[in-house]
Protein 1
Amino acid sequence: MMHFIGSLILFCLAFNACADSKITQQLNKPVPGGVAVVDLGRAVQIPKASYQSRPVLVVKEQSNWLAIVGIPLTVKPGIQQISSNGHNFNFTVANKKYPEQRITLKNKRMVNPESADLKRIEAERAVLIQGYRTFNTVTPSNVLLDKPVNGPLSSKFGVRRFFNGEERNPHSGLDFAVPTGTPVKTPADGKVILVGNYFFNGNTVYVDHGQGFISMFCHLSKIDVLVGQSLVRGEFVGKVGSTGRATGPHLHWNISLNETRVDPAIFIGAFQP
Ligand SMILES: [Zn+2]
């Protein structure tokens, strides 16, 4: 019996298999648009990891390193692979069906932009995508995040959206229904890497939490930060508004990992399969 208990303890220590970590429990939601938490084991130094040739966030919990991988909405269910220090690690993506939403916009330019708008949209898209490519080696202060505002969730991530009957990109973030002027807090420490006004997103702020883990806040009525500014968890970045393509005041919050937008609900413990 003692031998058995001894073996069990050794097994637990060696493989961390007896209790999933808090991070794995909350964040491991391997569906399209979700997150895979991959145990990379022990190492003295932080291992590098990549998925689809992009660097991946790696954090330590207890004695093990965990890769926190953003899974694109376009990935089909099945086996996916990351590589780390010359080894491959598999994870399995399960199916998830996202609902549809039909939205009516009075401003038809927001559905079928004019040619001058299209030029602006193209230029802005390049800037916004470039922002998500930021990869600083800083370790995030926390990967289990605070809600940036206190309020009910309105539109969920991944919803297939039809504006005035025409299908557009699926919803890339999570919406909170809160009044104009509500202060928006950064859900973890970070550095402001982008501030601007954009056609669809309105007044926008990016906060880089480290290693490609980036928050985007959109439709703000007011921006209270400058590019380059360092923020601690809970500091204000701006105020809720309805600038850009918005049917009313709300906060739109994106989370990006390895240049991939994933469901922010996962990070605040509000994920629904
Ligand atoms: Zn939104």
Protein 2
Amino acid sequence: MTIRGIKRDLLNLLLELGKDSHPNEFAALLTEECGVISELNLLPGTVTGSSSASVFFDMMPLGTHHAGSAHSHPNGVLRPSGADLNFFPRAGRYNLIIGAPYREGDWRCFTADGEPCELAVIP
Ligand SMILES: [Zn+2]
């Protein structure tokens, strides 16, 4: 399945989750429906501090509509950490980082290799 983009509602929800979790991180798995990333499954647990969301991914279930992951960086750095680069290949093709202060444009998408990639926002 080719991914065409992410649903705006879901992106807004991810930004909201980042804000609600701050100063902690949240981590979620993303699933697609008909080529659009449209749902999330929050991973259990709370991690205090930054760059530690990868612990969530050790208990990651893999489903058929699995598209990737999203997690927040309370420090606002919109780049994958070393730990992120280790789990992106396991998490899937599209990996979103949501950064403080969690405004509309405070996110980036990365491939499994940790390279920045375009992801369309679909109304
Ligand atoms: Zn991270």
